[in-house]
Amino acid sequence: MRLSSLDLHTVALGTAGIMVVVVAWQALTEAPIPNAQPPEPIQACIGEPIIVDYEYGGSMMDPWECEVQCKDGIQRYIYYTNGKATQCELLPGCLDWGEDKGILCDPPAQTPV
Fold it and tell me: Domain range spanning residue 95?
């Protein structure tokens, strides 16, 4: 049995129509992307301070301060000149976790300035 060009055209249109219906259905029924989670409540900073000579700006900043904890294996947090602090990623990680996520930690009262 041989398909004529009309039959091929009909099959192609039918396939395209089914694809459009599937894509439209997925677009209309897909769950919405949740909003970013609010920062967690301030918790106590863990480890030794990395004292920097600039203020905390509320978001991801340069340079990569917590890198040192991957080299020496000592848990740290970043202490800024405006008295704010952010937690470095827990070991064995060494990302500027709190700074990157905009989450502050509460430094000990005896943190040197």
Answer: 43-106
